[in-house]
Design goal:
mainly alpha, globular
């Protein structure tokens, strides 16, 4: 479920906030979907906004990429 996926992202070694995880999971329904999106378009998270309107910071995006696709 979406809640489980969001929890998995939050509980990973990345230390990202629940707001960031929710923004990602709203746009990528599964971990597999996110990984495939990152492989085909490494910039897919660059303009993603959280519910407060702020973009996800660059450090978090880079950490996700390294953790998920080892770039």
């Amino acid at each position: 479920s979406l809640c489980d996926w969001s929890s998995d992202v939050c509980s990973s070694d990345l230390g990202i906030s629940s707001q960031t995880a929710k923004a990602i999971t709203q746009n990528h329904s599964t971990m597999t979907n996110l990984i495939e999106s990152l492989k085909t378009n490494p910039e897919c998270l660059d303009n993603l906004k959280m519910f407060n309107g702020r973009k996800i910071n660059r450090t978090t995006i880079e950490s996700l990429k390294k953790y998920l696709i080892n770039t």
